[in-house]
UniProtKB/TrEMBL annotation:
Residues 298-472 form the TLDc domain. It comes from Glomus cerebriforme. Pfam families: BACK (PF07707), BTB (PF00651). Residues 23-96 form the BTB domain. It comes from the Eukaryota. This is BTB/POZ domain-containing protein.
Length: 474
């Protein structure tokens, strides 16, 4: 049996940081009046940091009196002292350090390729330095997005913005936001903020970046073609990220049309068709910004969830979401590939729940995705056979993951919304959309729902995957 004596080993090695006289590296850190020299041992530096393993190789080093001389002016003495203690002792106490020094440690640990230290500092800033991070949010935001391997803190900053987007997006700090970070923000669907606010602030950001925020540049009545062209160039990568169809007609008329010259023609034409003809855009079909929604589906993309939520809220897919509209999470309760695709498996997981349920079905050899929603579940009143009343059930289909080909069919015969019978896994409207073991039928012969979901009435689809979610209001 091998005996382990790590504690004594670490203690003895840590002593040579300050007490040994056989060092062979002098590292000068800092600049101007804040410079300090540290003595270290190349063998330990090389073992603990791949950066030093390369930097202290024979091709790189500069020697003076047989001593390796090394300069790091971009790292402060306080930060490098923490790094050396970590390298020699494997210990780090950040309790009494200022936030700016901890952030400097994060930058330095990334540069010196010490991944373990970088991950620890990110966690510490998130968990223990929340107040400081929030007070210096823009500094932290710009810093961490310059560090590729800083995903934890990057996501934390983005989540912080998404939790209260309006206060940040309408702040003066927003006007100095880096363009790459702005692009990442505008790409997100989980920012619960009205699109008109994003549009207004994007225009202000563009003016600030293009001209500087001066009164004569802010007054567009005094602009000429050169002004518009300059702003168009600044905002070219951001205009396609705006959800124009989420604006009210009044906001579109008052806020967007005055800036027609900065919007590419193909985007502007689609927006005009939407507002004047109700035609859903084919190119700018980004989903609404509906906030963070939980769903783990292998069948549909998250962009369709906002459409389904609109339907649950009794609205059309293209209707603009209001602040007081209900949002939902979707908790997976059944997946066919996990529990088997048959009537009993579905009913065992879903039929004893008198809660709102969303069902999604992907079929073999078909581009269609079918689904149905019941606000009262598939079982009620302790009955295992018979119809269930519902005014708000609906069935739907997508094709090619394209909202252009979506079909919605709401229940019209409320007393026949759901048919509960052990011959079926589920059955909307007796025959509008139902599962019978591995087969799916979408006939609607009894016309208990508004429309047929397919033109191929009588087609028997083979279920490839099926999911059911408990729908929970946030």
């Amino acid at each position: 049996m091998t005996s382990i004596f790590h504690t004594g080993l670490l203690k003895d090695i840590s002593l040579i940081l300050n007490n040994a006289d056989d060092f062979n590296v002098i590292i000068q850190v800092g600049e101007d009046e804040n410079i300090k020299e540290f003595r270290a041992h190349s063998v330990i530096l090389r073992a603990r940091s791949s950066y030093f393993k390369s930097a202290l190789s024979t091709e790189w080093i500069t020697k003076k009196n047989d001593m390796i001389m090394f300069n790091k002016p971009n790292i402060t003495p306080i930060v490098f002292d923490m790094i050396l203690k970590y390298i020699y002792t494997g210990e780090l106490d950040l309790t009494n350090h200022l936030g700016e020094n901890i952030l400097g440690l994060l930058i330095a640990s990334d540069e010196l390729l010490i991944e373990e230290l970088s991950n620890h500092v990110q966690d510490y800033l998130i968990k223990e330095q929340t107040t400081w991070v929030q007070k210096n949010f823009v500094l932290v935001l710009h810093t961490v997005f310059e560090i590729t391997n800083c995903k934890k803190l990057q996501e934390y900053c983005l989540e912080s913005i998404c939790s209260n987007p309006q206060s940040f997006i309408t702040s003066k700090s927003f006007l100095s936001l880096d363009k790459d970070i702005l692009s990442i923000l505008l790409e997100r669907d989980d920012i619960p903020i009205e699109e008109v606010i994003i549009w207004d602030c994007l225009i202000k950001w563009g003016i600030e970046q293009t001209f500087s925020f001066e009164s004569e540049n802010y007054n567009i009545s005094k602009w000429d073609n050169e002004n518009y062209e300059a702003l168009k160039e600044t905002l070219s990568q951001f205009i396609p990220l705006i959800r124009f169809i989420e604006l009210t007609p009044a906001d579109y008329f008052d806020k967007v049309r005055p800036y027609k010259a900065i919007i590419p023609n193909h985007i502007y034409d689609e927006v005009e068709e939407f507002y004047f003809k109700g035609i859903i855009p084919k190119i700018i079909n980004l989903p609404p910004r509906i906030g963070k929604i939980h769903i783990e589906s292998k069948i549909i993309e998250k962009k369709f969830i906002s459409i389904i939520i609109n339907w649950i809220n009794k609205k059309d897919a293209k209707v603009i979401r209001k602040k007081n509209d209900s949002l939902y999470n979707f908790d997976l309760i059944y997946r066919g590939s996990k529990f088997r695709i048959d009537n009993n498996s579905f009913r065992n997981k879903c039929n004893n729940l008198q809660v709102p349920i969303l069902v999604l079905i992907k079929c073999q050899n078909s581009k269609k995705i079918f689904g149905g929603y019941t606000p009262i579940g598939f079982y009620s009143n302790n009955s295992n056979n018979g119809f269930i009343y519902s005014m708000d059930s609906f069935i739907f289909s997508f094709e090619n993951n394209d909202i252009q080909n979506m079909k919605l069919s709401r229940v019209i015969s409320y007393h026949y919304a759901i048919y509960n019978n052990y011959y079926y896994g589920f059955n909307f409207g007796s025959d509008a959309l139902y599962m019978q073991n591995q087969n799916l039928y979408a006939n609607n012969n009894n016309n208990n729902y508004e429309h047929n979901l397919t033109d191929d009435i009588g087609t028997i689809y083979t279920i490839e995957e099926i999911e059911a979610f408990r729908v929970v209001k946030q």
